[in-house]
Amino acid sequence: MLDTLTEIQINPLSDVMAAEVVGLDLREAIPPEVQARLDAALATYHVLCFRDQSLSKHEQIEATKQFGTLDVHVQSNRSSDIPLIHIVTNLDENDQPRQTIAAKGSVHWHSDKSYRHAPSHATFLYALEVPDEGGETEFANMLKAFEAFPEERQQELSRLKVVHSWPDSVRRTNNREASDEEKANWPPIAQPLVRTHPVSGRKGLFLGQHASYIDGREPDGRAMIEELEAWSTQPQFRYAHQWRVGDLLMWDNNCLLHRAAAFDGDRYRRLMHRTVTQGQVPY
Asked: Model pTM?
């Protein structure tokens, strides 16, 4: 077990966001003083990469639940024998890579479970196999994007709500209709277009794949979402994580959008385990 704060290093990975955490074995319990340092680092950098981990599914659950209560996933996965673990992969039932599976990944900008009354707080993605080229996870800093607007524009946006809809999201991006159970469990919900970060108090845009339209502004409400997403995902607000096997990436859904970059899914294998912690109602 770690005895001092000096046994781990937290090194920034870019000027926009993200830092790596070196020297921490997440198979061990995190001491309170180290946990406090990690919580502060997440509030500062929004993305933390725990390097050189070696975690079974059960060990990942035990490690990540130290950061909050774990949540179940909307979509089941054939490879997962544990509901709290979501398998993110392009491997088929014969353990072979397939581009058709890779193309179904989360290639659209989104914030996890934004269509819920209380969206996800932190997402954890653990890399077991990664492509030699492509397959990065890209992030957009919604705090910096909002703060780059003139004050008058900030005030205008802060008065609006945006409707997040799981049924509309799967229709637009997956070309299917949500089931009756999905519609009952996750009906459209109006969220603040500008949300307050629960730790820092900073304001940021709340958009992404599940955002359907600006409340009260149909039909032009969708066009406004696309305009704001194009603004907030400009290169100056982005970070792309180059994966290494053994990386456990943790990110803050309260202030980020993310997506998976494309890769040659017929040539390369990609296998990751995902867990998420429950969040709070946006305000």
From this structure: 0.92
